[in-house]
Amino acid sequence: MxxxxxxxxxxxxxxxxxxxxxxAEYWWFQLFLVLACFAVGFLDGLLFGVPTExxxxxxxxxxxxxxxxxxxxxVRRLHDTDRSGWWLLLGLIPLIGQILLIIWYATKGTxxxxxxxxxxxxxx
Length: 124
What we know:
This protein is mainly α. The chain has one domain. It is about 55% helix and about 0% strand. It has 5 helices and no strands. The chain has helices at about 5-10, 25-50, 55-65, 65-80, 95-105. Helix 1 packs across helix 2, helix 2 (about 25-50) packs antiparallel against helix 3 and helix 2 runs antiparallel to helix 4 (about 65-80). The chain starts with a helix and ends in an 18-residue tail after the last helix.
């Protein structure tokens, strides 16, 4: 899966929490979010000046617009490792929860069909 394919898939599945997401889909979309936040932040600074506290208006709107696809791809990524999306709540535990989620996001998905759907790497 390429960078543009991953972005297109995540935006097409804007609020789709069913199914599975490949590692490439998740990580390419995360890279897109980081790069886009930098670009939008730069534009925000040019148009409205650098905010003294928090983030700018455009960055806030971008993060709000991409909140659901970010959440959905994270849930689908957990589904690929045969875990429920409710495990995302583990991220509320400082440091340990976030580290565990990163490890799970980087872990290879289960081979073949699991309880969340067919293997996204299987061409059939």
